[in-house]
Design a protein that fits this description.
Blueprint lengths: L15 H7 L3 E4 L10 H7 L3 E4 L8 H9 L3 E3 L2 E9 L2 E8 L7 E3 L3 E9 L2 E5 L2 E5 L4 E4 L5 E5 L5 E9 L8 E4 L7 E4 L2 E4 L8
Parallel strand pairs: 1-2
Antiparallel strand pairs: 3-4, 4-5, 5-12, 6-13, 7-10, 7-12, 8-9, 8-11, 14-15
């Protein structure tokens, strides 16, 4: 329970000057740092303030939250996405498909995809099949399959997409139909790659 709140008088990110003003008996150092790592340690020793490390447990550290908040979504005509994790041969994305929007009818020559619905209702086309997916349901799109994802619900559709393959570049896409005029492609050798405005977009 909090009995009193003191507004920091410090000009930097520490609370050194505030400690000098209020002179508490205890300085509780929570979070993901220890007393030997913080600038307040010297002031506490000088004023004989007891330091308690790791008070309580944090679900996430502030440094991790700040780092994650700096990542930004990439906007698309159909909504937006953010890359959550990327490693050798895989990538994880969060896709947000706006209401009444859909990605192009497309295929990838170097990767498969697995879609899991987090919220909303999805219509998924895979080759000649169409299925409806709701929250906590998923679909696998094999490498080379012609596919499309559509928001057929009343709220934004949120999808977690897991890509697996030898090449995960945004330019590995061949479009067959597109609501935003991006279906033009050209052949290079044995493989088709998108050209023009919007290439590298789902």
């Amino acid at each position: 329970m909090v009995d009193e709140v003191f507004v920091s008088v410090d000009k930097d990110k520490s609370v050194c000057e505030s400690l000098r003003v209020i002179k508490p008996d205890v300085f509780a150092q929570g979070g993901d740092r220890f007393s030997y790592e913080v600038p307040e340690r010297k002031v506490c020793r000088e004023l004989n303030i007891k330091v308690v490390d790791s008070l309580g447990k944090k679900i996430q550290s502030s440094s991790k939250l700040i780092s994650e908040s700096r990542r930004s979504y990439e906007e698309r005509a159909w909504g937006r996405f953010i890359s959550i994790e990327k490693g050798e041969g895989y990538q994880v994305k969060r896709l947000i498909i706006d209401v009444d929007k859909r990605i192009s009818l497309q295929r990838h020559l170097h990767r498969s995809e697995h879609w899991v619905v987090v919220s909303g209702v999805a219509k998924v086309t895979i080759d000649d099949d169409e299925i409806i997916l709701k929250r906590n349901e998923s679909s696998y799109i094999p490498l080379g399959a012609v596919h499309r994802l559509e928001n057929c619900g009343r709220i934004p559709l949120e999808i977690i997409e897991v890509q697996n393959g030898e090449y995960l570049g945004e330019d590995d896409i061949e479009r067959f139909e597109d609501d935003f005029g991006r279906a033009e492609s050209v052949e290079f050798g044995e493989e088709d790659y998108c050209i023009g405005e919007g290439c590298g977009e789902e």
